[in-house]
Each structure stands twice: as C-alpha cells, then as structure tokens.
C-alpha cells in the first residue's frame, strides 16, 4: 500500500511585506507537510515568522503583505490561487484557526450560542435550535460544565480558560481537516494550560484532525507534538520527529534554544544563552541568517544553503551539523 497523501503540503512558501523602509522577508522558502491526525509544532523566537506562516496558510495575509512565491495544497487543492470568496468558504470549514487571545476572537456583544450559530450557518444551513444542539455537544467535548447554560452566556462572563475552550470548540464545530493554533495557551496559567494541552491531544486523536501548534515554548512541543519545525529569521532550519530534534538537535540554533531553558541548567551555573539578537528582516545576513550568532560558523556559511535530509522525515539547513558529518 502506498503511503497516504499529506492533508497539507507547503512548498517553498515566501511571504513578504512591502513597507516604506523596504521589503520585509517574513517567511522565506518554507516547506513542510502534515499528515492526517498529526500534530506539528512550529517553534522559534518572536519575529521568526511562525505566526505569519500560519496566517499565510489560511489566506489571511493582507496588503502590504503578500505571498510572493510557493505552493499551499490542502487535500490536494491549491490555495494560493483561490479568490477571496473561495477562501472564505474554506476558512472555518476545511481549515480553521485558534488565536492567542480569545477576547479578540469572540464578539463581546453576542452570546456564545449565537456565535456558534454564526460559525455553523456560514457553511451549513441549519436551524438555530439544531445549531445550539451541536454547540452544546461541542462544549461538552472540550470539558465545559453546564454546557447548555453557557450558550446563553457572554464572553466576559467566562474565565480565560473557558473562553479559550469555547474558541477551540468553535474551531472544530465544522469538522475541519486542519486546525492552526497560534500560541492559544500563552496567557493562561500553567494548570489550565496543561488541561488544554491534554484536551487537544485527545481531540486530535478522536476527531482525526491535523493540528499545527505555533509556540515559543519547547516544553509544550515536547509534550504535545509528533514533529517539530524550528524557525529562525523566516526559515525552517530544522524539522523532524520531536524525540530526535529535541533529544539530539543537529542545528546550532536548536541546540542554543534547548541550552537556554532554565530547568535544564545546573544549579549555580549561568544559562548558556544564544549570543546576540535575531537580525532585522530588512537586512538579513548573506547565506545562513544564523551565522553571526553561531559558534560553528565558517566562511562557507556565507553561501546559500539548502535543507539536507539526515534521517527519515528529518531535514536540517546547516553545512556543519552537530553530532554528525
């Protein structure tokens, strides 16, 4: 039997923003795929391009931003050539997104039940009563007690964790093939965060949905994801199975991120921080963007790099990889 086709395929995606100061290369030559029922973590520093990658996949890039090159295929259908009306049919239906702040996602003047109806009715014509029945079942699935009563509540009447659970339920209500979550647990306390991460794992397994989890937290990636893509200055520098990438990283930047985690430091010793700062996207270094901060850097790193395969479904964009040739 041939292997199943990926539900989402992104190839050589480049997204730019045309500003007065110049053209910002926010996402540069990014490629990855997502299998059905798989969780992919996209991790990197602020400004690395991970959130813009997610917005590009959903077709939410607006001027002065634009997708300059590349291909995005959802279940074999090319998304970059679709018109606005066709993209709206897909968003919230075949592909959906969970944003970081639920208070900016939910409408403050509409009840939770009304908002569920709007989400469902945008893609399927159902009665209001039928929509409420679906919404109640969805709220139960994400662990909200007294779900029927919550449908008459307004967002300000719910806690932060419950609001995020509502957003998760809304993202899944139309049974999408792919969900993109942009740091949805960042503003929540650790206990609630752990509950939502565990819930998301169960929902992915039970619903057979594919999930992209955008985050800066490697501990979340370690506990949640099947594969991870590490981004730096708009490019994916390392991608592969979570256990291999985090257990034995091959790119110096990934190694630097892991070394800077406080919990892994020996008592009494200073953290091994990555020196310097991420370069401005208006003035990226020639060749490898990580070169000015890299202890492995040599003159050859000024040349344009490609991703090399170092294992099954494991790619690294580096000439002088750690722990190998």
UniProtKB/TrEMBL annotation:
Main location: membrane
Pfam families on file: ABC_tran (PF00005), oligo_HPY (PF08352)
GO cellular component: plasma membrane
Gene3D superfamilies referenced in this protein's UniProt entry, alphabetically: P-loop containing nucleotide triphosphate hydrolases
PANTHER family: DIPEPTIDE TRANSPORT ATP-BINDING PROTEIN DPPD, OLIGOPEPTIDE TRANSPORT ATP-BINDING PROTEIN APPD
Family membership: Belongs to the ABC transporter superfamily.
Xref: NCBIfam families: oligo_HPY (TIGR01727)
Name of the protein in its database record: ABC transporter ATP-binding protein
Organism: Flavimaribacter sediminis
């Amino acid at each position: 039997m041939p292997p199943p086709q990926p539900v989402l395929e992104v190839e050589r995606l480049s997204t730019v923003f045309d500003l007065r100061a110049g053209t910002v290369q926010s996402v540069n030559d990014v490629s990855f795929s997502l299998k059905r029922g798989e969780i992919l973590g996209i991790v990197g520093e602020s400004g690395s391009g991970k959130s813009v990658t997610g917005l590009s996949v959903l077709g939410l890039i607006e001027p002065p931003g634009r997708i300059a090159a590349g291909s995005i295929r959802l279940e074999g259908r090319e998304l970059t050539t679709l018109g606005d009306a066709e993209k709206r049919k897909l968003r919230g239906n075949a592909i959906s997104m969970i944003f970081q702040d639920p208070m900016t996602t939910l409408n403050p003047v509409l009840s939770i039940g009304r908002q569920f109806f709007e989400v469902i009715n945008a893609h399927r014509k159902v009665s209001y009563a039928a929509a409420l029945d679906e919404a109640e079942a969805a709220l139960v699935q994400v662990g909200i007690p007294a779900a029927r009563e919550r449908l008459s509540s307004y967002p300000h009447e719910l806690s932060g964790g419950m609001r995020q659970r509502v957003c998760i339920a809304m993202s899944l209500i139309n049974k999408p093939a792919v969900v993109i979550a942009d740091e949805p647990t960042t503003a929540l306390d650790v206990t609630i965060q752990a509950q939502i991460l565990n819930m998301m794992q169960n929902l992915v397994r039970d619903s057979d949905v594919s999930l992209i989890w955008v985050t800066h937290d490697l501990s979340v990636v370690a506990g949640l994801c099947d594969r991870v893509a590490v981004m730096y200055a708009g490019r994916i520098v390392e991608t592969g199975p979570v256990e291999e990438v985090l257990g034995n990283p091959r790119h110096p930047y990934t190694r630097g991120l892991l070394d800077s985690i406080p919990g892994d430091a020996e008592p009494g010793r200073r953290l091994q921080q990555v020196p310097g700062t991420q370069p401005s996207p208006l003035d990226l270094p020639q060749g490898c963007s990580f070169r000015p901060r890299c202890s492995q850097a040599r003159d050859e790193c000024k040349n344009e790099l490609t991703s090399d395969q170092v294992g099954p479904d494991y790619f690294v964009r580096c000439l002088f990889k750690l722990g190998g040739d």
